[in-house]
Design brief:
Order of helices and strands: HHHHHHHH
Strand content: under 5%
Helix content: over 70%
Number of helices: 8
Distance between the termini: 44 Å
Structural class: mainly alpha
Largest sheet: none
Number of domains: 2
Number of strands: 0
Length: 203
């Protein structure tokens, strides 16, 4: 039988993780205690039984259980967000492409389609995509999150400056220069830094 001290050890390990849900934490404790007890009955020491139970349950850490639980609870919301993201990206990209074609062929409605495409892509698709991507990267390092933030900011400003240029508004040049500065000195350094880190990790 597993002792109270051993139960306290397992509970302490779970509490040290990033699990915030009390009910989930209690259920995980019961599950781990059962697995450890089963493994100890097979002749393993407590340490061996605990490590085996841990690898069977959550080899990437206890917070993996919480992430999977939240995903299952929010599955419909996540799927709706993904549909909205990629449908909006398709619609606004199509509008921009059609506007470009109309502009080349000198057809009416070209400016309207270009405006809708640029505005929608910059202020609807990119922010939604960034929010969903940021949630996926929430557990990763800050440099990865900053890479996406600077990249999204430069694309949004590029879209805004292009829209201002089409509408012949003042400040389009300044906005365009700002977007390239953010891209060059914000996005690119973090992009190549993350590429370097990944290449080193694979050695």
């Amino acid at each position: 039988m597993i002792t109270d001290e051993q139960v306290d050890y397992i509970e302490a390990q779970i509490k040290e993780s990033k699990i915030k849900n009390k009910s989930l934490s209690d259920d995980l404790l019961d599950h781990m205690c059962c697995l450890v007890e089963i493994n100890m009955k097979k002749g393993l020491t407590f340490e061996q039984a605990y490590q085996k139970a841990f690898l069977q349950t959550s080899p990437n850490g206890y917070e993996e259980i919480q992430n999977e639980t939240l995903f299952l609870l929010n599955y419909n919301k996540i799927m709706n967000m993904k549909r909205l993201t990629y449908i909006s990206g398709f619609v606004f990209s199509l509008a921009f492409s059609a506007g470009t074609l109309f502009k080349i062929l000198h057809q009416p409605g070209a400016m309207l389609l270009l405006g809708i495409g640029l505005f929608g892509f910059s202020f609807i698709f990119i922010p939604i995509f960034l929010v969903s991507k940021y949630k996926e990267l929430a557990v990763q390092v800050m440099s990865e999150r900053l890479k996406w933030i600077f990249g999204a900011a430069s694309v949004i400003l590029l879209g805004l400056s292009s829209l201002m240029k089409i509408m012949h508004l003042m400040g389009a040049g300044v906005m365009l220069a700002t977007s390239f500065l953010i891209f060059g000195f914000g996005f690119l350094p973090f992009l190549f830094f993350r590429m370097y880190k990944k290449s080193v990790e694979t050695l």
